[in-house]
Structures are given as structure tokens and as C-alpha cells.
Amino acid sequence: MLHCQKTPAFTAFFAECFLLIATFCAFPVAAAADELTPREQAFTQQMENCVLVGTFTVDGQNDSDPLKPERYEIESAVKASGDLWVFTVRIKYGKLDTKLPVTVPLLWAGETPMVSLTNASIPGLGEGFSARVLFHEDRYAGTWQHGKVGGHMFGRIEKAKATAPGEKKTQTDSTNKQGSDK
Q: What is the pTM of this model?
């Protein structure tokens, strides 16, 4: 588990993660698989049981290691309706460890999918949350912003390895090779 100091930048990054949950937790009906375009089918398959393993930065932060580790566990991504997709994700923060459906706008730049949030509000956490995250082949990259604090995020999309019943930790090829986990 990652141990971080609760700096304003860390708080902003954490708040962005909760933006996805607090603002977009609607439960729209998913589109039937045969109604998906080939690019939507490919994206659904890519997001099935995957882990985004990478790093993020905080603009203007002057420290010895500007890259901070990040990890997003995704069980599935299903088109709901229009540009809305439901991502079933695992959220880990402090003692919280839960799986939730999160509904987000997903737009397309040609064949490239992009999660797009603009100036969203989170009750109790604030306003002005924005993000753009592109997915291409086995990589993701994007920007995040909360008010005046923002940065970049980027990394790899890896398939999650199956875990034993009752085990909560999701492993990927890279975490096994590195011998550590976020």
C-alpha cells in the first residue's frame, strides 16, 4: 500500500479520484454487446480486468521525485448510453477498499477513447475537477486539474492476474517483476 504525506497536492489528486465516484455514480442501463461499434467492443475488451499502473505529476511542485506512483484497478467498462460508460473500479484509500460502478463521459478522437471531465463538483470536496485521459494500445496518458492544482498522469494498461479466493490484492506482470505494489 502506498504511504503518502497529506499535502495539498496529494489531497487534490485523491479528490480527483473521488470525483469519479461522487459525481457520476448513476446506474444507467448498459448497451447490448451487439449494439457496440468495433472500436467500442475493443475498448470494452481492453478494460476488462485491467490495471492502470503509472505515475502522476503535480505542476509547480519542487521535490526530489516529481513522479508519484498511481494505480487504478478496473474490472470492466461498459457503455451505458450515449457518451456515458460505467467503469467498475476498485477504490483503495486508507481503510477503504471497495469496488464501485463509476459512470463517466467517454469521447473518441478517431479510434482513441478519452475519459473527459470538465469542472465537475464534488459535494464536500469542492468544485473545478477536470481530467482528460487517453487510452492507446497498452498505454494511458492525460491531465488532471482541481482548481489551481493539476498535473499529468501516464502509464501502462496491464491485464490483472487472478488472485486466490478471499485475497484482495490484484497483481500484474510488472508488480510481480518489481516485487512491490502501490
A: 0.71
